[in-house]
Q: What sequence folds into this?
């Protein structure tokens, strides 16, 4: 019997098919992980090396089939799951097999363990790499990160050291680090409905997009990336802000949570100016922004100072951020443009070495975009001061603008940073999932996440390493097309605001047909 309000039968069948296809995909990904994932034994790291291994065809077959199934199932319901509860149950079902998988898609978790070991044994992970510190698990760390200082905040260094102490060995440390990641995902799941409802976004769609994304299971849960912890703290802070704006105690709490998120991973700092907008209660004025934003900033600074003092590491982690760009891949648009310029230079017998220049240009453009996005959000909220509409609609518009601005700022940061890794896409995906209202407008940020899900192999091999020239050319062409499209759309909108040209008025004689 059909209950009134239930989705029609074809929609129910499509949802059921997506649920079980995604679960089968998650099982296949787990099998691929045990056959050839990022296990402690480091391989040469190439698709051909995996293929020649004892389980080569089985590894790649399970990985490709599992990725296709999970991405396809997630994509098929991108307009929204049948219900919020259904979305949560299905996303949880997909994560269950991956809880039992070895590290997938990256070897970063071994770097976390070695950095925690270094700190626990009295070495400063911001001064020396894990090789110089003498980490006993060095052979499991990717060679590119063995001699670089830690780029993560002091809170995460403390957490990594605690994982090593509690774990008692490499396997135990990895298990505790995965528990951290699962806790971050659960915290994200806890905050999503409140943020979506505050912004007027259907919770069934926001939960599906943010939790059932294949990147969550592979990279946050199985890969145990610290992005999960930082993202969970960030969303909890934003939830406090949208529910209790203008309240000093709530603002201090939200600021402390934001400071803790930054003390895990510096990406969270991009959200701070937009969080200040969400902190304002009442009319948007500069005075109100300084007042409520000041309380928020106080909480941020207090949390960062407390973690720096508790760890005894100070701000040394800021220097480690410079080494995060040691990896050069075309998946970063500025890096791709630099590659193409270098290729063109070689054709004429020159070596321009354009990648560093392109990366600096990308960062400068990022600063301009972040300022422009904040100013857009501020002006939009200021206009709400004089808009007379229903209180409920106005209440949803205020957090939606702040959350959308934060999501767009994170999208710009991910796109213009010197390095891009697939799990970075989860930052803007989560914020945009709770702030973009029209379902038809979700494709532009869902599609890149679907593409990012196929960029790695189970052992952590990045396919961008083996498609350098064609990938760089394709990315550069894509950037040119998107830039041209943005200029055309922007120009038409500016023309539309001015309206069509006025037609000359006809005289009374002409109107009467006597002209």
A:
């Amino acid at each position: 019997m059909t209950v009134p309000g239930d989705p029609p039968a074809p929609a129910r069948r499509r949802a059921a098919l997506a649920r079980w296809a995604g679960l089968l995909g998650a099982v296949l990904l787990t099998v691929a992980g045990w056959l050839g994932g990022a296990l402690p034994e480091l391989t040469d790291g190439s698709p051909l090396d995996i293929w020649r291994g004892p389980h080569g065809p089985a590894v790649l077959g399970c990985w490709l089939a599992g990725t296709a199934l999970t991405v396809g199932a997630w994509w098929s319901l991108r307009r929204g799951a049948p219900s919020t509860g259904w979305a949560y149950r299905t996303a949880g079902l997909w994560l269950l097999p991956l809880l039992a998988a070895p590290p997938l898609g990256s070897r970063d978790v071994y770097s976390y363990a070695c950095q925690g070991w270094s700190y626990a044994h009295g070495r400063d992970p911001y001064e020396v790499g894990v090789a110089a510190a003498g980490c006993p698990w060095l052979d499991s760390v990717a060679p590119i990160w063995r001699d670089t200082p830690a780029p993560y905040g002091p809170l995460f260094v403390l957490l990594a050291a605690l994982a090593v102490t509690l774990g008692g060995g490499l396997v135990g440390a990895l298990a505790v680090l995965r528990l951290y990641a699962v806790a971050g995902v659960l915290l994200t799941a806890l905050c999503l409905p409140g943020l979506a409802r505050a912004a007027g976004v259907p919770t069934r769609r926001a939960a599906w997009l943010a939790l059932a994304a294949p990147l969550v299971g592979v990279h946050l849960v199985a890969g145990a990336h610290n992005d999960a912890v930082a993202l969970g703290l960030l969303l909890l802070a934003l939830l406090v802000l949208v529910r209790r704006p203008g309240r000093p105690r709530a603002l201090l709490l939200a600021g402390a949570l934001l400071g803790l998120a930054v003390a895990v991973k510096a990406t969270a700092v991009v959200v701070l100016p937009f969080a200040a907008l969400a902190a304002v209660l009442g009319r948007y004025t500069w005075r109100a922004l300084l007042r409520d934003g000041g309380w928020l900033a106080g909480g941020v600074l207090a949390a960062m100072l407390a973690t720096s003092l508790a760890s005894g590491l100070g701000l040394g982690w800021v220097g480690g951020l410079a080494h995060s760009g040691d990896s050069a891949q075309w998946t970063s648009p500025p890096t791709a443009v630099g590659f193409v310029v270098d290729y063109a230079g070689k054709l004429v017998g020159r070596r321009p070495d354009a990648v560093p220049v392109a990366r600096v240009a990308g960062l400068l453009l990022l600063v301009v975009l972040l300022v422009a996005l904040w100013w857009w959000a501020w002006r939009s909220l200021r206009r709400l001061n004089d808009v007379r509409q229903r209180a409920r609609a106005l209440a949803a518009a205020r957090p939606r603008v702040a959350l959308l601005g934060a999501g767009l700022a994170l999208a710009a940061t991910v796109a213009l940073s010197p390095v891009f890794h697939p799990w970075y896409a989860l930052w803007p995906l989560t914020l945009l999932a709770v702030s973009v209202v029209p379902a038809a407008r979700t494709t532009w940020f869902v599609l890149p996440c679907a593409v990012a899900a196929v960029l790695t192999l189970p052992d952590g091999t990045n396919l961008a390493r083996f498609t350098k020239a064609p990938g760089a050319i394709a990315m550069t062409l894509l950037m040119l097309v998107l830039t041209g499209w943005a200029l055309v759309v922007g120009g038409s909108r500016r023309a539309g605001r001015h309206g069509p040209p006025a037609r000359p008025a006809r005289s009374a004689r002409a109107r009467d047909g006597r002209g």
Notes: The chain has 22 helices and no strands. Confidence is low (pLDDT under 50) at residues 507-515. Residues 468-498 form the longest helix (31 residues). The two ends are 73 Å apart (CA to CA).
